[in-house]
Amino acid sequence: MPTPRSVSYQLEEVMAGEEADHLWVTLGIASEHPFDVLHIVVAKANDDQDERLGHDSVYLERRDQSQSCYGGARSIRASCEAVEIDLAPAGQRALGLPASVHIVGCGGVSGFDVALRVFATMRSFPNGRVLTVEAVPPDGV
Fold this sequence. Notes:
The chain is of the alpha+beta class and 141 residues long. It is built from 3 helices and 9 strands.
């Protein structure tokens, strides 16, 4: 059976935040795996070692560090309704996902407005260059 080119998951819960050295969004998705999550992390700065090791891009992790990578996303597009991720081959292998991942139902999940603002802030750092964010809600909405 051929591997699917895309997959869609329903968003069940979301958490997002900012730490001293990075920003993060965790998307809890409904899949065949219980407690499935996708972590998206952007560092605020890089050093020479990060660049040598290829850690100067978005970090993705699914469920645990055994399914993680840097540089696995070609693009991440977030809107009020969905998060669409176009994975590079390295991301597909590391995360066990097809090239195109659609996370839907985002507008109905509490806290997704905060995640959109964090995604928008991620975009302002060099490691967040693959992110596009549409319709960021204002603070307090």
